[in-house]
Amino acid sequence: ENSGTAIDTCDVITIVDMTELHDRGDIAELINEIGMCNPICVGVDLIFEGEKDDKLGNELLEDAVQGLSGKSVYTTKLTNYSTKKNKFSDKVSSYFTNRFQVDEGFANITDNMEKSRIREASLSLRYRDTLIYSFPVRISMMAGYEYSSESLSKNILINYRNVAIPVIKYDEIIENTDLIDNHIVLIGTTHEEQDMHLTPLGKMPGIKIQAYTLLTSLD
Questions:
Q1: Cβ-count burial of 184 within 10 angstroms (0-12 exposed, 13-18 middle, 19+ buried)?
Q2: The pLDDT of residue 1
């Protein structure tokens, strides 16, 4: 545990909690609002599976995604892993990735599917005949960080140091533009049990694991 140690405040990353948002039109508005505040890049820790009946919501979301193209990364989940071939054969991505260019990074957690404590993170995994980078690696690359080919081929230990990452709610963007401007912004849920994983510090949301991993990568 980190009790008794000094807490540093991260001045690079801001988390935007959109746990209460469900309508795609509202999520599109959030993405647009963040985009207007000059972030370095935006990591969207969400997968929009399939179109919904709300056509306007779909269109607004697609417009928002395209409007932030080149400055945003979306999560994908790699599935159907072959131990023999050491690669995945399928993935789950947002429906619009087949319609226009979208930067993706995998959000798979290294836990051997045994619900063990999360101590390591994979920087790259093989999907069919392609090497796909992790969500935090794609974000840090977009932010200007460079990796060697050797480092990308290895897992890294996650540095769970005592760092406070600013978290703001989806409806608090305007009054917190200083936490968006020139920052790496992560959009995702922070209170859903299904997105919680065991770490050496206890249970933590997956998006925070990604943030810690990114901090480690940038060091």
A1: buried
A2: 43
Contact between 186 and 45 (Cβ < 8 Å)? yes
pLDDT at 215: 60
Say which residues have a Cβ less than 8 Å from residue 168's Cβ, sequence separation at least 6.
Answer: 14, 15, 16, 17, 176, 179
Largest CA-CA distance found in the chain, in angstroms, rounded: 52
Q: Which of these, 42, 52, 34, lies nearest to 95 by C-alpha position?
A: 52
88 touches 79 (CB < 8 A): yes
Other Cβ atoms less than 10 A from the Cβ of 115: the count is: 10
**List of residues 6+ apart from 64 with CB closer than 8 A:** 27, 28, 29, 31, 32, 35
Q: pTM here?
A: 0.86
Interaxial angle between packed helices 55-67 and 24-35, expressed in degrees from 0 to 180 and rounded to the nearest 10: 20
The parts of the chain modelled with pLDDT lower than 50 are 1-3, 112-113
pLDDT at 202: 63
What confidence score (pLDDT) does residue 149 get?
85
Q: List all residues 6 or more positions away from 98 whose beta carbon is below 8 Å from its beta carbon.
A: none
> In angstroms, rounded to a whole number, what is the distance separating the alpha carbons of residues 114 and 2?
25
Going through 50-183 in order, the beta strands assigned E by DSSP cover 72-82, 87-92, 103-106, 120-122, 124-127, 130-133, 155-157, 163-164, 167-169
- Per-residue confidence (pLDDT) for residue 2, from 0 to 100: 45
173, 17 contact by CB (below 8 A): no
